[in-house]
Amino acid sequence: MGKFILAAGPTGQILMTEKEDSTGKEYECDHFHISSLLLQRAKKYGPEKAVKNLSRIATGNETQEEPIQIDSWSAFLTHQNPFAIEVEALQYAINTWIAEQKPPALWNTSFFAMFFEKPELLPEGLAAEAFLYRCRQLQTRPEINSELFNGQLTTLYESDTLLPLAWAEVWYALQNKLRFRVCPYCGKVFKLPNNAPFKSYCGDADCRQKYLIDYHGGLEAYREWERVRKKKLGGGKRGRPRKRKDNGNGD
Ligand SMILES: [Zn+2]
Q1: Is the same domain home to 165 and 149?
Q2: Same domain, yes or no: 52 and 154
Q3: Whether residue 33 sits in one domain with residue 76
Q4: Neighbour tally for 234: CB within 10 Å
Q5: Residue 245 belongs to a domain
Q6: Helices 33-45 and 163-176: crossing angle, nearest 10°?
Q7: 107 falls within a domain
Q8: 233 and 186 belong to one structural domain
Q9: How remote is the CA of residue 33 from the centroid of ligand 1, in Å?
Q10: Could you tell me the residue range of the domain that residue 216 belongs to?
């Protein structure tokens, strides 16, 4: 068994693996790389499979992730797999605390009250519980090293498994007021541009099409809109009118 170490800094993250035989690897990646991998694969293969293969996909190291063990979860959410609850909670945390800049509120309602009287508070409560539980599994320490973000003071997050590091990404983003969101179509965690803080999907061509279909209220309406739009553009061609071919004489 080895360890996983995440160094987060202003320009991104470095994910490091450490093994007992002192071999290790380093991966430079974007903020939310681990969460993004997990949420994208959860969309494709379901949360349990996504969790199971997370460390292998991210680092090549096989690791057994342990589910969150909270009494109220096993008592009240009996029909749900704890990994599924956690993946849902992670997505909620990013889309609410990070994208909307609404940090976890002090929620002093008991789980019982949330579950039976105010079910609308449940996602916030579950996300907060998952966040606190996973962050307690982290070991954090400062590092100053010329190879990490030009020697700037950096926080290292260390964990035996990878799931706590997904929550470390949330923790870092909360403290540094980063703005990211989960694409509802592919699960990718994407950076919200300063000039478009409410951008709702990642911008990939596939997701853009799905967004437009939703936006127009279904496939039929979307096709009609496309047809009218193309007509307006003229000749059924997309985009800008084509430039005349350069004949090489400079005119
Ligand atoms: Zn997407």
Answers
A1: yes
A2: yes
A3: yes
A4: 8
A5: no
A6: 130
A7: yes
A8: no
A9: 14
A10: 204-238
Give 202 Cα–ligand 1 centroid separation in angstroms.
4
Taking CA atoms, 236 is separated from 4, 174, 195, 229, in Å, by: 53, 47, 32, 9
> Looking at the structure, do residues 116 and 158 belong to the same domain, yes or no?
yes
Q: 62 falls in which pLDDT band (50, 70, 90)?
A: confident
The two structure tokens encoding residue 112: 């019982």
Contact assessment for residue 185 and residue 206, using Cβ atoms and an 8 Å cutoff = yes
Do 199 and 212 lie in one domain? The reply is no
Task: Tell me the per-residue pLDDT of 87-111, one tens digit each, with 9 for 90 and over.
Answer: 999 999 999 999 999 998 766 567 7
Distance 243 CA to ligand 1 centre (A): 32
Pairing of strands 3-9, 12-18: antiparallel
How many residues can be counted in the chain? 251
Is residue 243 one of the residues assigned to a domain? no
pLDDT tens, position by position, 129-165? 999 999 999 999 999 999 899 999 999 999 999 999 9
Q: Same structural domain for residues 224 and 116?
A: no
Q: From ligand 1's centre to the CA of 182, what distance in Å?
A: 8
Q: Residue 77 pLDDT > 60, yes or no?
A: yes
Residues flanking ion ligand 1, Cβ below 5 Å: 183, 185-186, 188, 202, 204, 207
237 or 55, which is more confident: 55
Same domain, 220 and 152: no
Q: What is the pLDDT of residue 251?
A: 44
Ligand 1 center from residue 190 Cα (angstroms) = 8
Please check the confidence at residue 248 and state whether its pLDDT lies above 50. Answer: no
CA of 149 to the centre of ligand 1 (A): 29
Please give the mean pLDDT across all residues of the chain: 89
Q: How many domains does the chain fold into?
A: 2
Going from the Cα of 211 to the center of ligand 1, the distance in angstroms, rounded, reads 9
